[in-house]
Design brief:
4-stranded mixed β-sheet, EC 3.4.-.-
Length: 142
């Protein structure tokens, strides 16, 4: 069985992009934007149709992260419905949420970028990539 990192790398190579919105389009996953109070996004699998909802009120970087996370669910957990709760899902310990987070950070941050910034601290990497410290730690395998 492939690791989550290998799966993310496979889709980047297959479609020639690390943009989760473009990958979703290649995979015929419908992406819709709406306003949510506490939910940043969700993945729904209904009648063999995959759909990702993204909170339209998020900043661009957060939309990219949430989209990558939900795309991880669509690829890794195809038959499950999953909700991304702002400031909560990053810290959840369930296997599915951890895998979706791992997929997202491996999609959005390449090994080459990590090598380029290898002298940077976790806090510096967090600022450079615009991601939560916990997600940087996850990407670094800490």
């Amino acid at each position: 069985m492939k690791s989550v990192k290998q799966v993310a790398e496979y889709y980047k190579r297959k479609f020639g992009t690390s943009n989760p919105f473009e990958i979703a389009e290649f995979l015929n996953i419908e992406v819709l934007f709406d306003s949510f109070n506490k939910c940043s996004g969700c993945y729904l699998f209904i009648k063999n149709h995959r759909c990702i909802f993204i909170n339209q009120n998020l900043e661009h970087r957060e939309k990219m992260l949430v989209m990558a996370h939900e795309l991880g669910h669509a690829i890794l957990h195809r038959n499950q419905n999953c909700y991304f709760i702002r400031n909560k899902t990053y810290l959840l310990c369930s296997r599915t949420e951890r895998e979706a987070n791992l997929f997202a950070v491996n999609l959005l941050i390449t090994d080459e970028e990590l090598r380029e910034y290898e002298s940077c601290s976790i806090d510096q990497l967090s600022m450079i990539f615009g991601l939560n410290r916990k997600l940087i730690e996850l990407r670094l395998g800490k």
